Amino acid sequence: MNLDLFDHPDFHPSWREDLCPGAVVLRGAALADDRELLKAIENIAIQVPFQYRATPGGYAMSVAMTNCGDLGWVTDSRGYRYQSTSPETHRLWPAMPDIFRTLAVHAAEEAGFKDFQPDACLINRYQPGAKMSLHQDKDEEDFGQPIVSISLGLPAVFQFGGMERSDKTQRVNLTHGDIVVWGGPARLRYHGILPLKAGEHPLTGQYRFNLTFRKAV
Ligand SMILES: O=C(O)CCC(=O)C(=O)O
User: Is 124 annotated as a binding residue?
Assistant: First the structure.
């Protein structure tokens, strides 16, 4: 690993909140990079526009998605999966920008997960009313690697539950620049996002963006 590439002097979460063993919110940890992250999202979306996908059961998702990195997460009638190309353009996903990888690796390390090697970054775009139902991230091969999730734009309520869908959930308010990391004993916890409330953010307008980093293979 090239350490220079991963050096990030501005990485200063303002404080950390532990959700449970293996899960932490690093408040404000992406703030110093917010404009660069948003510019990179815009660039990626020009190459591979956001899409509203359908679950294998045929339900339309309210969150629009695109990807960058070696692999992208997609869903359709054939199931949930990672693939190296966009189903729409049939071309490789755009490369993961260095700033994405650097931030994700730093956040994982700060949360206690050394050597995070993300090969997939799902970019979620929420408009008012969009939500993500409680789910587990289990399409990856190695649950030893954590999940790093960056919030930008409008605030959202993150639901963080247990190992069963029916377990009680914590409600965590996520605002612009927050990073959530979960792995180890928390890696398979259910999580989701409640319907986004309308608002206006100075950098993203009526949207919330989320970057979710994972090692898929
Ligand atoms: O938008 C978020 O903060 C969570 C996204 C998420 O849970 C996912 O992409 O699996």
Answer: yes
